[in-house]
Amino acid sequence: MLPKLSFVLGGAASGKSVWAENLLLTSGLEPVYLATSRIFDDEIKMRVDAHKSRRCEDWRNFEQDIYPGQALSTLRETQAVLIDCATMWLTNVLLDEMDIAAEKARLLDDIRICAAPVVIVSNEVGHGIVPDNALARQFREEQGRLNIALAEASDLAVLVTAGLPQVLKGSLP
């Protein structure tokens, strides 16, 4: 049985999305993918296309760059949703100069009231050097705070490194 909220954390290209997809696919529930990325350039489009090509036609897909609650509110207990990812969601909120604290609270509420189990992927961005500009430093700090909030709210928290999961909180289903 999939927990109400599973949080999957890892570095860039760590295998976290593939691991999270497999977690959903082995749950026995109908898989739903909620993409948060905006396509700014060809490189991001290639990444999005690669993610899409991995998923079979069994997946129901939504694209919600800022307000995932619009999709989450339509889901049922027979489904499980993968939000990929919190990092792109935060990027959108930050670039749109929205109230980060308010939007984070809304995201956590939307996840809490979703009828389906939720798996949310996020990047660990705090292991690198201190960025050289204010926006990048603000992003790093806000991403850290968001990750802490998601981990705290989760029933299962997993760090994925080189495709290998390390359970930080809870236990694997």
Descriptive notes:
The protein is an alpha/beta fold. It has a single domain (5-169), classed as 3-Layer(aba) Sandwich (Rossmann fold). Helices cover 41% and strands 23% of the residues. The chain is built from 6 helices and 7 strands, in the order E-H-E-H-E-H-E-H-H-E-H-E-E. It has helices at residues 16-25, 42-54, 69-72, 86-95, 100-113, 134-153; strands spanning 5-10, 30-35, 60-63, 79-84, 118-123, 156-161, 164-169. The protein has a 7-stranded mixed sheet, with helices on both faces. Helix 4 (86-95) packs across helix 6 (134-153). It is globular. The relative contact order is 0.24. The model has no long low-confidence stretch (mean pLDDT 94).
Number of separate helices: 6
Cα separation of the termini: 6 Å
- Alpha carbon gyration radius: 15 Å
The fold-level CATH name is Rossmann fold
What ranges have pLDDT less than 50 throughout 5 or more consecutive residues? Answer: none
Strand content is: 15-25%
Secondary-structure content class = alpha/beta
Number of strands: 7
What shape does the CA trace take?
A: globular
Helix/strand order, N-terminal first: EHEHEHEHHEHEE
| CATH arch. level architecture | 3-Layer(aba) Sandwich
Mean pLDDT metric: 94
